[in-house]
Amino acid sequence: MRVDYITGNTAIAEAAIVAGLKFYAGYPITPSSDIFEYLARELPKHGGHVIQFEDEIASINAVIGASWACAKAMTATSGPGFSLMLEAISLAVITETPLVIAYVMRTGPSTGVPTRAGQYDVLQATYGFHGGLVIPVLAASTPQEAYDLTVKAFNVSEMLRTPVVLLTDATIAHTYGKVIMRERGELEIIERIRPLTPPDKYKPYEPVKEHVPAMACFGDGYNVLVESLTHDERGYYAPRTDVQRKLMWRLYRKIVDSAPKLFDYSAIGLEGCDYAFISYGSTALSAQVAAKMLREKGYRVGTLKLRTLYPIYEDGIRKLVSSAKKVFVIENNVGLYYRELRAILRDKEVVSVPIIDLDLPQPQEIVEVVKQWL
């Protein structure tokens, strides 16, 4: 274990190495580019490979290929680059390919302000690809969380055979913070389930544990089919309702049923509170200060910082804010995640606090908006 003062982007790169990253493919895009640059210098020292491709489309497809060659693989990007990756992410979902995408949000839409922050892409991160399913999305608010959640992202991707998105933003990416970095032997590192059956009995999409199939890689001697079409457990194209129904529900259930296991958060003062602030990412830092300011004025305010955005653990969130009369969802966008929480907290008054700022919303501004509802 060692302690260093590093940026959020450096923390992601360091954590990816310790998690076992062996292949990084990418295309430079602000504000994620220094993840690429750091790994280009450091990953080869650990037996890994870093390749710049002609665009994000080629990059994400190379990551998929590397994962099927049994290498832990990732890329990093921002809004416009993630949009280009969506078709390949759909491919990774239906072929159940483990990979990690560090999504460093910038001010949007379109190219927006490349060097400044925002939380505009929280819905795109899980709903952007076609197919109507969800993929796990984790959200960091500090360099330390960026480090810890990168390791978790790799573990979840291997455990569930799925793409995983780690959301940060330009503020976290370039803010320095104290980060405790552990060696590989000090961390729980999860590896994908490998087949135990002989090659002639192996079915690449037959679930063996909690809806998740064992994954043979190219060169293992198994018949490996990476089929983008609706397929049966053998991997053969099967355009039938019964096959589609079984496949879709399994892909859905393996993520959604894991919500309790994946749920990650921090809470302050929620027990017995009258008002609850829910936030995520860098905005959570301002929300916590705003809550403290209100507590000093006599208001009973608790905070819930979500580090897992998807799959949504509905029962867990409801229980945590059960005592609150009002719930305020504080975001640096037009109120995107508020829409998700409003749907699951139907017995409460849920108030959107959308404060758009090119950096961090100021705590005093949050207080001024919230006090109108107290």
* Rg of Cα set: 21 Å
Structural domains: how many: 3
User: Within the largest sheet, what's the order of strands?
Assistant: 3-2-4-5-7-6-14
- In whole angstroms, how far apart are the ends? 45 Å
How would you sum up the global shape? globular
In CATH terms, the superfamily of the largest domain is: Thiamin diphosphate (ThDP)-binding fold, Pyr/PP domains
- Poorly predicted runs: none
From the helix content, strand content and strand pairing, which structural class follows? Answer: alpha/beta
Fold-level CATH name of the largest domain: Rossmann fold
What is the CATH top level name of the largest domain?
Alpha Beta
H/E series: EHEHEHEHEHEHEHEEEHHEEHEEHEHEH
**Architecture (CATH level 2) name of the largest domain:** 3-Layer(aba) Sandwich
Helical stretch count?
Answer: 13
Query: Which band does the percent of strand residues land in?
Result: 15-25%
- Major pleated sheet: 7 strands, mixed
Which bin fits the share of residues in helices? 25-40%
